[in-house]
Amino acid sequence: MLRPGTQRLRGILLRSCWRRGSPGHPRSICGREGEEKPPLSAETQWKDRAETVIIGGGCVGVSLAYHLAKAGMKDVVLLEKSELTAGSTWHAAGLTTYFHPGINLKKIHYDSIKLYEKLEEETGQVVGFHQPGSIRLATTPVRVDEFRYQMTRTGWHATEQYIIEPEKIQEMFPLLNTNKVLAGLYNPGDGHIDPYSLTMALAAGARKYGALLKYPAPVTSLKPRSDGTWDVETPQGCMRANRIVNAAGFWAREVGKMIGLEHPLIPVQHQYVVTSTIPEVKALKRELPVLRDLEGSYYLRQERDGLLFGPYESQEKMKVQDSWVTNGVPPGFGKELFECDLDRIMEYMEVAMEMVPVLKKADIINVVNGPMTYSPDILPMVGPHQGVRNYWVAIGFGYGIIHAGGVGKYLSDWILHGEPPFDLIELDPNRYGKWTTTQYTEAKARESYGFNNVVGYPKEERFAGRPTQRVSGLYRSLESKCSMGFHAGWEQPHWFYKPGQDTQYRPSFRRTNWFEPVGSEYKQVMQRVGVIDLTPFGKFNIKGRDSIRLLDHLFANIIPKVGFTNISHMLTPKGRVYAELTVSHQSPGEFLLITGSGSELHDLRWIEEEAVKGGYDVEIKNITDELGVLGVAGPRARKVLQKLTSEDLSEDVFKFLQTKSLKISNIPVTAIRISYTGELGWELYHRREDSVALYDMIMNAGQEEGIDNFGTYAMNALRLEKAFRAWGSEMNCDTNPLEAGLEYFVKLNKPADFIGKQALKQIKAKGLKRRLVCLTLATDDVDPEGNESIWYNGKVVGNTTSGSYSYSIQKSLAFAYVPIELSEVGQQVEVELLGKNYPAVIIQEPLVLTEPTRNRLQKKSGKDKT
Ligand SMILES: Cc1cc2nc3c(=O)[nH]c(=O)nc-3n(C[C@H](O)[C@H](O)[C@H](O)COP(=O)(O)OP(=O)(O)OC[C@H]3O[C@@H](n4cnc5c(N)ncnc54)[C@H](O)[C@@H]3O)c2cc1C
């Protein structure tokens, strides 16, 4: 039993175990500079109307108030239920880092740190920001590969990052036992900040620019009005808001429930311990860099003359606050901590004591065990929420201290300018949906917490909580035959096992066990015929009096004729690519819209919002879960399908991009002649309950033609060879369609003034600065996958967006953005992969002509000859 007082714990002496925050002085946990904090003062003012009401006065909510007010928004009100920082913020360890394994979040970390560096000067509030740098330790060869992988993903960003040798690490962190250390990933400028002081400084700034921060003012009810505004109720009174932002930390689920939403968030416990003065630390001439022992799964930083140690336990050991999951946060839970539980973290402490031996002599003077929320993938949810007008969220922060500054700016820019300032799709709250049950969220939160420091591989799959209820009709038939990938709740075949081959999940930075099977699937589609389960696509039905007008306003392409399909892009007002959809005009004024699995609610929200804004008389239905989709592709696709239908599928009768309702045997389908493989193919949209029967019939009918399955990895290789762009990689709201090479789909001369048209005209008039190109490179056992640095003359000049092995030329193939002056065919550049620069050359795209183009050329050459 742990109790306040002094207790020796396997070498570490425990002095006290902290439970309740001392009101107003949370820095007593691990107070840093000894600076005085401003008194907590509630403002007496009240407003009946607000432009934006932010619910929650943690670092995230206050940062948003600061940014909105600073950018000039009038009537920004923040309502806090007790006092600022009273959720997870007051007791956080305050670590800040430039590093993030993803791409877009690096920008958030960067913006936060740059803001924190100048906040003290701007607001006059001390923030206790220390920037001694940080070192991540590699003690295994695969971790060194991960660092090399991360270096190429950072090279084209503003962040400074280096791989350093053990000797250098020893010099920077003299208390480290470097026996097992192979390398370090060093980020100068990393460090830690006092979260309480940071929030107070942001609050001072917010007030200075005119925001009202009101507390105590608990929001007790939220009522939407028909004009899109909200009535926000508190015991102090009611306030009408044009927009509300839920920033309620681990109460965010409770706030969501007020309007019938179940945000997928799970409260978890996280602990760190603080030691008393350690003479060896005290004797140091400069502050130690923050250390992250990735194999040991803990962080360690200097805290005054002692150390602060925080582990991430495995998913089996970590603690979900179960009673809160079932019953919600107990009413009245305030600025509190949980009982500490050192047994849970003991094994991690022992590892740390081996790495940093002075810890063995240290006394523990404080243990902090605090609550925070985890989303299934540990990334926060930031942005407007689909299905609820003018309801925004900034919730689910596992690392809110480092995210607060950047996210506040990002969200404020989005709110003020009507579009996200840069691509941050991984934080879109609409990546989740009805399939994210509490059970799923809990399994995932455990996994995400436990995997905090695991090696992050390309094409990584995580298996907790799978399958969800959202499986395709074919799932049971295919699950034992293939390696499934997880896409927005769905399971989708990545690659199929071949007899005698290794079927394990073997992630790697290099080519791995799926490389050969994917090659066979590639040949299957190029030479015979393949079937793929495309059920995860997002699918919407749009009809009504104004449907054509609405789509003409939304899309940069023209509206296809009845019975036809086209690829269309929704652009932002600034002319960037918000989404790419397949639009089929099924009957006059009735459309089937198809989007990728990851963008279902992202796209739907945009469409719904524009429909409401413009007062269009349309009916929009999300039919994603109702329809299954099978893709049949390859030179023999027609022959196989023709056996099953009386509809004439011949080239001149069922043309490329035509769509028809027909029957495959007795099953009604909407057939579209299109295939992302670029080969002859159809997509068959059918009732989800018919998927197995339809699949079985096609497979039986195709026996003679040598039909077989293929998965999304083969499809990716096929589409890259055809130079088909992918939304989210080659195009997103960081790119305009002209630089992405999508001119063919953008009709600047169509009469409708579609969103982004004017901006795009200006972009065109000014000329492009960079362009998307296709390049090939010969490597040994590694392929590009996107986000790698492109080098020219010793400098990073661009980045890849996606890549694959090309099974047709036995080389690697990638898309990349390069400066316009380096975008000519034949231009040589280099692509950095795992620490090595490989020579690459820009090629004429596409590498392989599509089937419709081959046909057209063949017909033309036939005509030319006659
Ligand atoms: C032990 C520990 C250490 C951590 N260390 C780090 C770290 O080193 N670095 C890092 O980046 N992150 C760290 N974190 C995570 C970080 O603390 C959180 O991500 C961050 O504080 C979340 O901030 P927030 O503003 O979203 O929520 P909170 O700080 O929880 O704030 C939410 C606020 O909303 C208010 N509220 C709730 N309901 C209502 C309502 N109905 N009406 C009005 N107000 C309401 C609450 O009172 C609260 O003040 C740590 C967390 C823990 C537990």
Automatic annotation (TrEMBL):
Pfam families: DAO (PF01266), FAO_M (PF16350), GCV_T (PF01571), GCV_T_C (PF08669). Residues 21-42 are annotated as: Disordered. InterPro entries: FAD-dep_OxRdtase, FAD/NAD-bd_sf, FAO_M, GcvT/YgfZ/DmdA, GcvT/YgfZ_C, GcvT_C, GCVT_N, TrmE/GcvT-like. GO terms for biological process: choline catabolic process. Residues 52-414 form the FAD dependent oxidoreductase domain. It comes from the Eukaryota. It is found in: Mitochondrion. Residues 479-750 form the GCVT N-terminal domain. Pathway: Amine and polyamine degradation; betaine degradation; sarcosine from betaine: step 2/2. Residues 417-470 form the FAD dependent oxidoreductase central domain. Its EC number is 1.5.8.4. Residues 770-848 form the Aminomethyltransferase C-terminal domain. It catalyses: (6S)-5,6,7,8-tetrahydrofolyl-(gamma-L-Glu)(n) + N,N-dimethylglycine + oxidized [electron-transfer flavoprotein] + H(+) = (6R)-5,10-methylenetetrahydrofolyl-(gamma-L-Glu)(n) + sarcosine + reduced [electron-transfer flavoprotein]. SUPFAM superfamilies: Aminomethyltransferase beta-barrel domain, FAD-linked reductases, C-terminal domain, FAD/NAD(P)-binding domain, Folate-binding domain. Its cofactor is FAD. Keywords: Acetylation, FAD, Flavoprotein, Mitochondrion, Oxidoreductase, Transit peptide. GO terms for molecular function: dimethylglycine dehydrogenase activity. GO terms for cellular component: mitochondrion. Catalyzes the demethylation of N,N-dimethylglycine to sarcosine. Also has activity with sarcosine in vitro. Belongs to the GcvT family. This is Dimethylglycine dehydrogenase, mitochondrial.
